[in-house]
Amino acid sequence: MADTDWPGCGKSLKGVILDMCGVLYDSGEGGGVAITGSIEAVNKLKASDLELRFCTNETQLNREAFVDKLKRLGFDISVSEVFSPAPAAVAVLKERGFRPHLLVYDGLLPEFDSVDKTNPNCVVIGDAAEKFTYQNLNEAFRVLIGLEKPVLFSLGGGRYYKEGDGLALDVGAYMKALEYACDLKAEVVGKPSPTFFQSVLNDMGLQPHEALMIGDDLVNDVGGAQNCGMKGLQVRTGKYRSSDERHSTVTADGTVDDLAQAVDMILKQRH
Amino acid sequence: MADTDWPGCGKSLKGVILDMCGVLYDSGEGGGVAITGSIEAVNKLKASDLELRFCTNETQLNREAFVDKLKRLGFDISVSEVFSPAPAAVAVLKERGFRPHLLVYDGLLPEFDSVDKTNPNCVVIGDAAEKFTYQNLNEAFRVLIGLEKPVLFSLGGGRYYKEGDGLALDVGAYMKALEYACDLKAEVVGKPSPTFFQSVLNDMGLQPHEALMIGDDLVNDVGGAQNCGMKGLQVRTGKYRSSDERHSTVTADGTVDDLAQAVDMILKQRH
After folding, report:
1. Binning pLDDT at 50, 70 and 90, where does residue B4 land?
2. How far is CA A77 from CA A51, A242, B161, in A?
């Protein structure tokens, strides 16, 4: 970190929100691997007086399966602490009477079991990965272009993420493709939507200035949190790239090597 | 057409540029089918004193194979009359020392035979259709994100086109996906690039106000030609949709049922 003094994040801090992929673990074959020191860092936060929530744009698994995966990696996390886009989307669909055509990963489908999907009047896309075929994208496009007032929901707006030893396009790229083809603006459910961050703050019972977001995605984690009045810290793990530290529009409140370093600094400042 | 008087397109007209797919023929199984009256309309233009060129964003076949396909449908067209993005892109690549990673349809690859493709320092995408797989898009993305100064060339910027009895996403949608993921702006080679339209006008030896573009794509054909100072006419065939006639930013100089009607009106105004 450039400056070891970290304005506004000392004793006034009451809660921490952690991004998951790229902060807690790196995805990859067999569920991925925990990032060094992150399991202990989570335990230290849990043992402190800070509120702790997890906020992910993960949309390849339903929350139960996703939390199970993290438990297998060694993390002490429960479903009720995890906020992800699919449950938020289901609430929006039901509230506004939308019947979705889904272009999501198979593992996420159970989240939408309770939603009427007949005669679709909107499209929902998540990080469908290998299901982002030419055929499936055309199918989603045709549903949208056939609607008098096309509505597209995107589970997150990420550009890319780290997958094994390379980077992979995230749902945001496919969202932009459909936006352009249909001349519309998608509604993003999940990070960096302010509604999404606010729902986490509400659950913690905190004001934005009392909370800190830690993530590897400068725009969606750090910038999204900052837009809500929170502080945002970037870790140099996951999808972090050195060019993030000279980004044209988003400047993190701090940049640290990894979650372990971040947690040590936070807890040190409180004593 | 709303108004049968067609301002500026009477005796002063010296040349006509025709879009191909959706104006001359509809694509589909076995090379597609000629649109009723379009073969005769091309013959009438050829028999007139008007200059005639064809301007396509077709990038699934090289020009020779593409012209052969149209000849088989019954059109009297030669390669020298057809302007398409790939030869224009090859000229740009060579001029500026770019070695492309290609994400294009197999049929287009021969156009790039003379280009050095080792150790790529840019990406070129065309309408790759079924080759727009998750894997191939990630590969193009990784080339771009790995470059210090990523450069993306897009062969056209179309949103979608008619394929058989449905609509299919065009290269522009995938261009937007990569633009967003890599935080860059692609260089469009082909319609609606002014450079591309100007190269056709140069070949005809005409000023923009002496030429008329006829196409089914309101934004890329009609709007693109208008941005160059030409008149632009939209046909109600191909990808035409009734909502085009109340588009927020582009208004065609005229809208006609098909090419046959357009040509009859043009030739009638000249006598």
Report:
1. very low
2. 13, 30, 48
Best of B125, B142, B176, B185 to substitute, by most chain A Cβ atoms within 10 angstroms, is: B176
Query: Does B261 score more than 60 pLDDT?
Result: yes
A234 CB-near residues (< 8 Å, 6+ apart): A214, A215, A216, A218, A221, A222, A240, A244, A252, A254, A255, A256
pLDDT digits over A89-99, tens only? Answer: 999 999 999 99
Read off the tokens for B154: 């897009």
Q: Which residue of B has its CA nearest to A165?
A: B142
Query: Span A76-100, mean pLDDT?
Result: 95
Cβ-contact A176, B176 below 8 angstroms:
yes
pLDDT at A198 over 60: yes
Q: Angle at CA A195, nearest 5°, toward A194 and A197?
A: 65
Of the partner residues A129, A168, A174, the one whose CB lies closest to the CB of residue B177: A174
**Long-range contact set of residues B60-69: C-beta below 8 Å, sequence gap at least 24:** B60/B105, B60/B107, B60/B108, B60/B126, B60/B127, B60/B129, B61/B105, B61/B107, B61/B108, B62/B86, B62/B107, B62/B108, B62/B110, B62/B111, B63/B87, B63/B111, B65/B107, B69/B31, B69/B32
Top residue of A136, A169, A219 to mutate, by most chain B CBs within 10 Å, is: A169
Both structure tokens of B162: 């008619």
A167/B141 touch (CB, cutoff 8 Å), yes or no = yes
Distance between CA atoms of residues B202 and B206, nearest Å: 6
Closest residue of chain B to A174, computed from CA coordinates: B177
Q: Alpha-carbon torsion B135, B141, B144, B148, what sign? A: negative
Asked if residue B258 has pLDDT above 60, the reply is yes
**What per-residue confidence (pLDDT) applies to A30?**
77
B260: closest CA of chain A, how far (Å): 28
- A63-72, A163-172, B76-85, range with the lowest pLDDT: A163-172
Count contacts between A and B (CB, < 8 Å).
83
